Amino acid sequence: MILNNNYKGNVLVVDDTPDNLRLLSAMLTAQGFEVRKALNGKMGLTACQMVLPDVILLDISMPDMDGYQVCQQLKADDKTSDIPVIFISALDDVLDKVKAFDVGGADYITKPFHGAEVILRIENQINLRLLQLKLQEKNLLLQNALHNLKVSQVQQIQNEKMAALGQLVAGIAHEVNNPISFIYGNLQYASQYIEDLVNIIEAYQQEYPEPTSKLQQLFKDTDLNFVMQDLQNLMDAMYRGSDRIRELVLALQNFSRHDEAEMKLVNIHQGIDSTLMMLQHRLNATQNRPVINVVKEYGNLPLVTCYPRELNQVFMHILNNAIDSLEQSKVESQRSKVNNSQLLTMDYKLLTKPQIRIRTELLDSDTVRIAITDNGIGIKESWQSRLFDPFFTTKTVGKGSGLGLSISYHIVVQKHQGQITFSSSSGQGAEFVITIPIK
């Protein structure tokens, strides 16, 4: 709203006396105000809903609904609560004035009034309202700037952490990869050599069925038959162990993707699998809960152009939160057992069979959808509106920084031009859905 010589503002006059309405209307119109009139409180409220006035002149003594009641209804409605109300009344008692300010009035004029006084008080309220609007606008700009600064700082800090972690992980993977490749490559030859030696011993036993007493004692002391039978089991175990280490090294390299800061074509499933490999220790059974079952329902996805390291970071945050939710479900179930030994607050299957379900699909020719669902404790409704806010966390002090989902939102929405949404209800688990364009 901009005041000028031709238009000074929109004034609504509410008074049950027609002569007062005509007088005020003529006086204000002559001064450049746009004036609307209402003969009672209900008409005044209706007029406010149709077009918001800049200020309201409100008589106190009216039938059916007095000025106090009208003002209370105006202040109770978010749409009209900020409109300044100037009471005009023949009542000059202090208590009447106090009540007028108590119900939300901005000013009070006693009849009979002077035209110049009325105009000045109206202009003061309009100017004050303009200043308040400008202040609110500046506050909003400052809040947005502060929010953007926080998000930028969080992202910068996290990027530095992930870069340092990527260097560390890539270095460890490189150093481990060389010796494990040597071990894995030589296990085949070691297995062949052992097999040759066993064949020689068996041939010797056939050719010389009656060994000397010294050899008989040596065979007895070393339990030769058991050693020959168990050697192959040992070699198989070493094969499995070294193969597992090679998988971990590959997962570390795939997760960190230290040398892949730019966008490139990647296999989304490979990123999810490498993240699950990194979290395997958290999925295993503990003293407090059974193993977390991961169900993969992978669709037929093409290669996706993305920032692979950062997208893996999103998977890590969401899967970590899902595991935390399943851990908390077990804690809640233990509490419910203490409080009521016969009635549990959680579903029995949820407590005994923790599960994370990962589904991927191609929505159309250019969009990929990844849904990660858990049957954990769920997200309280009061938390849901703030879930992606920086530094907001539902975890206890020291358990979470409140940055994971905020950073995930930034990575998916701003860096990949995608969407990240969730659905949940307390005690019923949660589902996070990521959709990103293929290119």
UniProtKB/TrEMBL annotation:
Q: Which keywords accompany this UniProt record?
A: Kinase, Phosphoprotein, Transferase, Two-component regulatory system
Pfam families the record matches: HATPase_c (PF02518), Response_reg (PF00072)
Lineage, top-rank taxon, reads Bacteria
Which reaction(s) does the protein catalyse, per the Swiss-Prot or TrEMBL entry?
Answer: ATP + protein L-histidine = ADP + protein N-phospho-L-histidine
Question: EC annotation?
Answer: 2.7.13.3
Q: Which organism is it from?
A: Anabaena subtropica FACHB-260
Is this entry keyworded Kinase? yes
Q: Which InterPro entries match?
A: CheY-like_superfamily, HATPase_C_sf, HATPase_dom, His_kinase_dom, HisK_dim/P_dom, HisK_dim/P_sf, Sig_transdc_His_kin-like_C, Sig_transdc_resp-reg_receiver
Which of the residues bear the PTM 4-aspartylphosphate?
D59
Report a single Gene Ontology molecular function.
kinase activity
Query: Which part of the chain is the Histidine kinase domain?
Result: 171-439
Pinpoint the Response regulatory domain residues. Answer: 10-126
Entry protein name? histidine kinase
